[in-house]
Amino acid sequence: RGGASARGGKMASTAAGKQRIPKVAKVKNKAPAEVQITAEQLLREAKERELELLPPPPQQKITDVEELNDYKLRKRKTFEDNIRKNRTVISNWIKYAQWEESLKEIQRARSIYERALDVDYRNVTLWLKYAEMEMKNRQVNHARNIWDRAITTLPRVNQFWYKYTYMEEMLGNVAGSRQVFERWMEWQPEEQAWHSYINFELRYKEVDRARTIYERYILSGVTLAQVHQYCFFNVALLVIVHPDVKNWIKYARFEEKHSYFAHARKVYERAVEFFGEEHMDEHLYVAFAKFEENQKEFERVRVIYKYALDRIPKQEAQNLFKNYTIFEKKFGDRRGIEDIIVSKRRFQYEEEVKANPHNYDAWFDYLRLVESDADAETVREVYERAIANVPPVQEKRHWKRYIYLWINYALYEELEAKASRNSSSFLDAERTRQVYQACIELIPHKKFTFAKIWLLYAQFEIRQKNLPLARRALGTSIGKCPKNKLFKGYIELELQLREFDRCRKLYEKFLEFAPENCTSWIKFAELETILGDIDRARAIYELAIGQPRLDMPEVLWKSYIDFEIEQEEYDKTRNLYRRLLQRTQHVKVWISFAQFELSAGQEESLSRCRQIYEEANKAMRNCEEKEERVMLLESWRNFEEEFGTETTKERIEKLMPEKIKKRRKLQAEDGSDAGWEEYYDYIFPEDTANQPNLKLLAMAKLWKKQQQESEAAEMDPDKDVDESQS
């Protein structure tokens, strides 16, 4: 029954609750209002109307002790309740203690801080507030006790140490402050702590003590026996807490600032010894050099820079290079400055060739640098390193830059090395010969060769007055890998030596190797012409034009024709022109033939020239290239204007074509329509196929002229009457 009544009560409350819920009004018009109100506008209006401002609480005035005690009781109960709710929130403890402090209840405040430390003794803020309270209330001994407990409990919190030492110094307790610093240094703190200790001693002019601290600072960590090897004074635990380069530099500058220059130099020397060659740093040597520079010890500066540059890796010595260059510019001579610049550039080139040994352009720049500055042995060593980087692929395009390393090497051995060392010319020549021979042996002649290297070797042997070796080299090159340049170079050599029989043999070999080379045929014929053997030259020309394949036949025929003209063999020249016209009907051949007849200087030259033009015009009627026929007619017209009569001039004018503009359809590569283009065409009066078109065109022009005349007559009838009367 009890359960039923409970269920009944629950249902009744639910029903009552349903009755209490107001009905939600249905919105009929759901369209947006004309004036929209934003959240920003609502906030702005609320601020303007000050709707959220609450009136300040009424001020309470405490008039007697009972009210004060009651207020304290209520306030303490509030703080205690907050602490009881969450003991770990330190801000509640601090607020509580500060409130007690404001009432001058120092003992209560201490009690609160102590209770808070029991909860969280690692909270730094709590210790700081506790100590600051004691210091504000001039409770020095209490403050000392708190700082002692703080640095004992949390010795790695530097703020405690800083506050403690500052308090002792402000109280004038220099010895106490020093004692705190000493306790701090036993924990080997960070660098700033050591600097604070040093600055503290310097404020009281204790330079010796500051020096001792520097010694401990940069060397802390070794036994006392090792300390005496480094220190000037008896100090305890040293070496390896902060043995950084910058700390050594600060130590040296400290000595320099206080005019202990010998001590400063000793510090730099000890730093160099301490770091050794395995952990060298450019900043140490730069600082050392600048110190010596300030002491006017320029030779020492130069020695320091050179010592460092020889041992520090070049990629880590950029600042060192820069400072050394500035020093030499200020105090050195021109040679010293150049040495610095050269060494820096040499390092750059070394890095480039190390990154890519087949970068031959970098090798060229590097070699040019060392040739201008280094001795012969150094240059030779760099050349040997460069030529050792043979292209990995036997393709000529990969060897074109590489082969110039050998050429420059040989030229250096022949020219520069001879001037740079006191050795005999025989030794220089032998070394140069070895370079050329090694290069020739290295080139894969079965796949490709370089005519330049063969010719340079032969020219070198000639300069050494060793003609048999030069001929042997060129003969070997022609036998192994014949090339046009090799033949030309060998022939030119023999021509200079006036060995014409050898030249003939070489030309014969050359033409057997490359019978299509028209230039070789022409040069061979010219050689025979110079030697006066005309029949031999003519036979060479006949052999040349009889070749089935030629690279420049027009040049060969022109040379042959010019040769016959020089010999004044006009009949043979005409015969050559006729033979050439059997092979080609080119317009330039006809024009050249006509000009030859004109320049022959004979009585019938004009008639012969005119006859040639007529033959050419008849032959070119069926030529598809109308521009060539026009070129011929223009040349003929120029001839007639200079040498012809009125009849011949009228005749050639009748033969001149008419230039008309036409249109033709264009097609793209894919066959689609690409539009129309205009072009010029020539209509020749002699072409019978074009006569109907010409007649139609003439009739059209006549009809158009008549139309224009009739229109003019209609526009001006008086003019017609006057004309009829007249």
Rg of Cα set: 56 Å
Q: Helical residue percent? A: over 70%
Number of alpha- plus pi-helical segments = 37
Multimerization state: single chain
Which strand order does the major sheet show? 3-4
Instruction: Report the mean per-residue pLDDT as an integer.
Output: 75
Which ranges are low-confidence, i.e. pLDDT below 50, for 5 or more consecutive residues? Answer: 1-18, 221-240, 719-726
Shape field: elongated
Record field, number of beta strands = 4
Cα separation of the termini? 152 Å
The percent range for strand residues is: under 5%
Decide which structural class fits the backbone: mainly alpha
Protein name: Crooked neck-like protein 1
Main location: nucleus
Family: Belongs to the crooked-neck family.
Pfam families: HAT_Syf1_CNRKL1_C
Offer a quick outline of the entry.
The chain is mainly α and 726 residues long. It has a domain at 659-683. The longest helix has 25 residues, at 691-715.
Q: Layout of SSEs?
A:
Layout (H helix, E strand, L loop, with lengths): L1 H19 L18 H11 L15 H21 L4 H13 L3 H14 L4 H13 L3 H14 L4 H13 L3 H12 L5 H13 L3 H13 E3 L1 H7 L7 E2 L5 H13 L3 H15 L6 H13 L3 H14 L6 H14 L2 H22 L4 H14 L2 H12 L8 H4 L3 H18 L4 H18 L8 H13 L3 H14 L3 H13 L3 H14 L4 H13 L3 H12 L7 H14 L3 H14 L3 H13 L5 H15 L6 H18 L2 H10 L2 E10 L5 E11 L7 H25 L1 H9 L1
Antiparallel strand pairs: 3-4
Helix pairs in contact: 3-4, 4-5, 6-7, 7-8, 8-9, 9-10, 10-11, 11-13, 13-14, 13-15, 14-15, 15-16, 15-17, 16-17, 17-18, 18-19, 19-20, 20-22, 22-23, 23-24, 24-25, 24-26, 26-27, 28-29, 28-30, 29-30, 30-31, 32-33, 32-34, 33-34, 34-35
